[in-house]
Amino acid sequence: MTDPFLLEQIQESLAVKQRFLDDPLAMDTLQRVCDLAVAVYRSGGKLLIAGNGGSAADAQHIAGELVSRFFFDRPALPALALTTDTSILTAIGNDYGYERLFSRQLEGNGKAGDLFLAISTSGNSPSILEAMITARRMGLHVVALTGGSGGQMVPLCDLCLILPSTVTPRIQEGHILVGHLLCAFIERSLFGQTA
């Protein structure tokens, strides 16, 4: 007999995704994010991604799918998770403070026309907010993935996808769904193939 707690967790996860799917504004924003990412790649840009904790893992996951492959073999796409190089992370954290962890990397690796994907379940992570400000100043496109009300990220981005939950695991489950949708759409759009 399956513990009702487990069933409840699955049902809660499905309910968040269903609310997201049923929201016409969220679906329109999702389409605009996907179209923007394809346009950035077609113009020779790249995707830079950052988050803290579980969102850092999501950043790495999404970058890995783009650089390696998602559904099928195709040329590698330029994507960089700003969460992976311990020497860079510890140098910036030590020399400039944790808030500059991602903004400093954007200064070194980003260029106008690139896309910065900022991930924060609360929408209030200081290191992410600082990076968003830097990205906008540098002329990067800025997309946010968040939850709840969107927090302080909302006015700092071009497009914001808000998962309709205040529960961190449910938001993160929605974020990786969005990441997978983004990867699949990019592959299909650029290389004309589906799974």
Q: Can you walk through the features of this model?
A:
The chain is of the alpha/beta class and 195 residues long. It has one domain (4-191): Glucose-6-phosphate isomerase like protein, domain 1 (Rossmann fold, 3-Layer(aba) Sandwich). It contains seven helices and five strands. Strands 2-1-3-4-5 form a five-stranded parallel β-sheet, with helices on both faces. 41% of the residues are buried.
Describe how the helices and strands are arranged:
Elements: H1 4-22, H2 24-42, E1 47-50, H3 54-67, E2 79-81, H4 86-96, H5 103-109, E3 115-119, H6 126-138, E4 141-147, E5 159-163, H7 168-191
Parallel strand pairs: 1-2, 1-3, 3-4, 4-5
Q: What's the CATH first level?
A: Alpha Beta
CATH topology: Rossmann fold
Reading the helices and strands in chain order gives HHEHEHHEHEEH
Question: What is the gyration radius calculated from CA atoms?
Answer: 17 Å
How far is the N terminus from the C terminus? 36 Å
By CATH, the superfamily comes out as Glucose-6-phosphate isomerase like protein, domain 1
Q: Provide the number of structural domains.
A: 1
Question: Which features does this protein show?
Answer:
5 strands, Rossmann fold, five-stranded parallel sheet, 195 residues
Brief overview:
This protein is an alpha/beta fold and 195 residues long. It has helices at 4-22, 24-42, 54-67, 86-96, 103-109, 126-138, 168-191; strands at 47-50, 79-81, 115-119, 141-147, 159-163.
